[in-house]
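Why predict the complex rather than its parts? Because the way molecules touch one another can change local conformation, and only a joint prediction can capture that. The input here totals 285 residues.
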Amino acid sequence: MLRLTRPVWRFDPWMDMEGLGREMESVLFDLSPKGERKYPLINVFTRNDDVVITSEIPGIEPKDINLSVVGDTLTLKGSRRPDEVVNGRKWHRRERGTGNFLRTVRLPYNVDSDRVDASYQKGVLRITLPRAEADKPRKISVKTEE
Amino acid sequence: MAEKNEKLSVKRQEAKGSSLAESTTDRKTYVPSVDISETESSLIITADMPGADESSVNITLENDLLAIEARIDEQDLAGVDDHSLTLAEYGVGDYYRAFTLNEAIDREKIRAKIKNGVLGITLPKAQSARTKSIPIQVG
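Output of the joint prediction:
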């Protein structure tokens, strides 16, 4: 099969359910440096005109999350602060990490950054990224000349 | 951001073992990550349970077994309406984890709160269990 380099936004989620997983892997990839542990983990939900990303980041304040979108790239930045210091506290177990995080995700199409909506509830971040109007596929009608 | 992600990572572990009976539904149950610390007066357990809130968490203390569980809303399990899941890095499900307490706890004074998906439980030690120095007499 001849495979031309095709623009990523041509991807149609309804077209090929079988190849969906594989397709997304190439379309939506993580720009984090190799070998680094991913944080936070994300789930991506798509349809024709928007993408919804959910991420579990428990225990942060909404103001500590910094989101930015440029074109088709979403950057998630923030920090999970350690608990307040309590005098005479002895740790038995520490499984919950703290520190800064930074994650960059390439989306399947350009996003209208003015209409991006984000909410944080119960420790789950949810970002809705509408596809840019200019980026939507346009139907071109073919005329015949008599 | 030089030290990014250094200490942050997610361990997603499904709950298994004798303490938990096998599920008869297709819901998954995960083991929440916890911090356990102790002060002179109490034991503090902090658990990451994203997606859980005060209405979904259940804490029980039976004899010396402290169990934390949360049942996630059907709606949160379902994902996003009219969208297809195209990349799944984490699973959504219920939570369960149990601990054996080694010390006597003042059951009446246990306090628990949940905020932004983090559950905090303070278990005050029973008066009798607090460290007491016992003077030794020279006989």
